[in-house]
Amino acid sequence: MILFDTYAWVEYFKGSQKGKIVEKYLIEEEIATPSIALIELSCKSAKEEWDFEEYLKFIKAKSLIVGISEEVIVRCGEVYVEEKKKKPEFGIADAIILTTALKLNSKVLTGDKHFSDLKEAIML
Q: What 3 state SS string does 40-72 have?
């Protein structure tokens, strides 16, 4: 299973070169999307006036939506503090996405520089 973060979905919907790589994963892999990525997409859609409901409908059809489980909640603080020491700009949403990937034993498809040094990341 591959966990798509916000970055991956944005590139896909923009139709960029990186988005074409994302499309390959959509076709060939089982995909999951953390709910925090959907919240970030909702905010970006409002700011840039995208039709978020259409995007959400597509994401739900192509991807398993993963909520924030108790296990993720318990472990997230530890992941956040550890990564924040190395990368001061590492955020809570990043920590939730990484902790979700760890819980699912999956990789995160992203282009977010905060993930570039992580073995759990597939960088676009």
A: HHHHHHHHHCCCHHHHHHHHHHHCEEECCCHHH
CATH of the domain at 95: 3.40.50.1010
Kindly report, residue by residue over 48-59, the tens digit of the pLDDT: 999 999 999 999
* Partners of 3 in beta bridges: 32, 108
Name beta bridge partners: 64.
32
Residues 27, 18: Cα–Cα separation, whole Å: 15
- Total count of domains within the chain: 1
Q: Which domain holds residue 33?
A: 2-123
Strand partners, 65: 33
